[in-house]
What does this fold into?
Amino acid sequence: MALDLLLESIATGLLIGGFYAALSVGLTISFGLIDIANVAHPAFIILGAYFALALSQTFGIDPIIAGLLLVAPFYVIGNALYLFYSNTFERRGESSLAGLVLFFGLLILLEVGMATQFGVGLKALYSAYGSVAVSFGPLLLPLRFVYSFVAGVAAVIALELFLSRTFRGRAIRAVAQDAQAVSLMGAKPETIRLIAMGVSIATAGLAGGLVLAVGPISPYQDRLLIGRVFAVVVLGGSGSVVGALLGGIVLGISENIATIYLGAGWSLAVSAVILLLVLALRPSGILRR
It folds into this structure.
């Protein structure tokens, strides 16, 4: 019985890890590749969850499909956000501390706006698979986490192919290493960062649909995510999309085992402990940039 419980907690943690990877890949791009510490990224995820809820209730579509439909408009939002950030801070050489304050302010504005528009209570979408579990041998796994894992892994694969196989993707990685060299090759670093920020926020739209598929949402839920997504990014290796998947899996399994054996109150502490240990012992993370 104890072994079955351990195996089930590891398997469920693996699925949750794929979900965490989907939440974190956008921050991996903004923070790890273009050096923008967008602490408001989790708030954009929750905003995406509310938009996905509206789409699902209006058109009767699955929340994950709704998240996919949000990718394009959230890409445009990311472009607009970078243009404001660049014109206000980057070009004046004030992109570090002042930019961080900007994103903290944006986080608060998004929280207040969502609370005002949608209310502070929990909202949920009851899908056909929300309370269904599937059996894999002796394991009983929630189907909503199976779907979120598949979507998370697919998002990681798509982003990795984009960054490694396309000109714009390779340019984003090149800007992270040497922006001046990119300029000499005929590409504008500002344009590349614009694309990267658009992709980063676009992933938040998809992640919002996954959050809605997994459970209830609230305007301040981003506060439960911010520590986790930064832990995944740092653990996986800043700027590594595949590392975000590995980091998410490590965090998901660790959290789930801690929840099963120590209690739910320890789950939030796990991300903080992992973050501190990685920064102390291996600052480069599992995979280097």
Q: What stands out?
A: DSSP finds twelve helices and two strands in the chain. Residues 25 and 117 are 28 Å apart (CA to CA). The first strand starts at residue 133 and ends at 136. Residues 2-24+34-223 form one domain.
